[in-house]
Structures are given as C-alpha cells and as structure tokens.
From TrEMBL:
This is one of the proteins that binds to the 5S RNA in the ribosome where it forms part of the central protuberance. GO terms for molecular function: 5S rRNA binding; structural constituent of ribosome. This is Large ribosomal subunit protein bL25. GO terms for biological process: translation. It comes from the Bacteria. InterPro entries: Rbsml_bL25/Gln-tRNA_synth_N, Ribosomal_bL25/Gln-tRNA_synth, Ribosomal_bL25_short, Ribosomal_L25_dom, Ribosomal_uL5_bac-type. Keywords: Ribonucleoprotein, Ribosomal protein, RNA-binding, rRNA-binding. HAMAP family: Ribosomal_bL25 (MF_01336). SUPFAM superfamilies: Ribosomal protein L25-like.
Length: 94
C-alpha cells in the first residue's frame, strides 16, 4: 500500500492554490458520502513520483493526516495541459 504524508489546509480559492503551486505544493481534497470534506496540501514531487507507479490509480492509498490514517482511492487528478505538473487531486474515502 502506498503512503502519502499530507497536511490540512484552511484556505481555498484560486489565489491560495497558486501560492501553493509556487511553493511546489499541490492542493487536494478528501471527500465521501456522509463524510466531512477535508482540504489537503500535498508535496508535488512525492505525488508526481508516486503516480507513476502502477497501483496508484487502482489500489487503496494510505493518507497520514495529523497522526490519523485514512484509506482512500484517487478519484481525479487535474494535470497541466503541456507542463509536467499536477494541478489538483481528489481522493475518495475507501
């Protein structure tokens, strides 16, 4: 099982997301049916390298958020049209 260390973000919006991307961070969200939505900040390079692995999109991932563990699946990833950059990632509770 692949493991990702993430942080919780408090702000949202276009300008905040741009500031994160300048710092080589990636905005994301964790959501599910009847579950609370959690806004996330991930390290771009670690996610970019993990997404090249075969099981990233098919298997469950383990998110470590403030000493709590969540089993999740990747729901969607937004990529830059021509740069090798990820713009946003959505996780779904598994």
């Amino acid at each position: 099982m692949l493991i990702l260390q993430v942080e919780i973000r408090k702000d949202k919006g276009k300008s905040f997301s741009r500031q994160l991307r300048i710092k080589n961070k990636l905005p994301g969200v964790l959501y599910g049916i009847n579950k609370t939505e959690i806004l996330l900040v991930l390290d771009h390079n670690s996610v970019f390298n993990l997404q090249k692995k075969e099981g990233f999109y098919k298997e469950n991932l383990l998110l470590l958020i403030q000493d709590q563990k969540y089993k999740v699946k990747v729901q969607a990833i937004q990529k830059h049209p021509f740069k090798l950059k990820l713009l946003h990632i959505d996780f779904l509770y598994a």
